[in-house]
Amino acid sequence: QVQLVESGGGSVRPGESLRLSCTASGVTDDQACMAWFRQAPGKGRQGVASISINGRNYADSVEGRFTISKDKAKNIVYLQMNSLQPEDTAMYYCAATYACGSSWSNSRVFTYWGLGTQVTVS
Fold it and tell me: By CB neighbour count within 10 A (0-12 exposed, 13-18 middle, 19+ buried), where does 13 fall?
C-alpha cells in the first residue's frame, strides 16, 4: 500500500526559504515518478516539480528558485524552496505514479497523493 506524507510547510516572509519533505512508503519501483503539486484557493492543481530516472522538471514559475531531490535510502522526496513569494502561497501536495514522462505536470497522471502541507508567504 502506497502512502505519502508531506511535512515542512509553514508561514514565512517574502524572500525566505522552506524545505518540504515527502516520506513515501510502498513506492519501491526505481522508475517511479515523484512530483510536487500545489493548489491555491480558487485555482486548479499546478505541477511544481517532478523527479524520476528521466530527470527533473520544473514549472516555469519556480525554475531557479525551487529544487526537487530524492533520498533513495530513506525514500524521501524534498522540495527546497528559496526566494519564496506571496504567489507561492498554496497547499503543496506530494504525488507518485509509475510513469509520468512529459505529462509530469498533469495531475490526472498521478495515482497516489498525500494530504498536503500548507505554505503561506506574506
Answer: exposed
Over the Cα atoms of the chain, what is R_g?
A: 13
Residue with cell 505554505: 119
Residues 6+ apart with CB under 8 A from 2: 24, 25, 26, 27, 96, 111, 112
Q: CA-to-CA distance for 45 and 91, rounded, in angstroms?
A: 9
Structure confidence by residue, pLDDT tens digits, 18-43: 999 999 998 877 768 999 999 999 99
What is the C-alpha separation between 28 and 16, in angstroms, rounded?
Answer: 34
Residue 32 exposure: Cα atoms within 13 Å on the Cβ side: 22
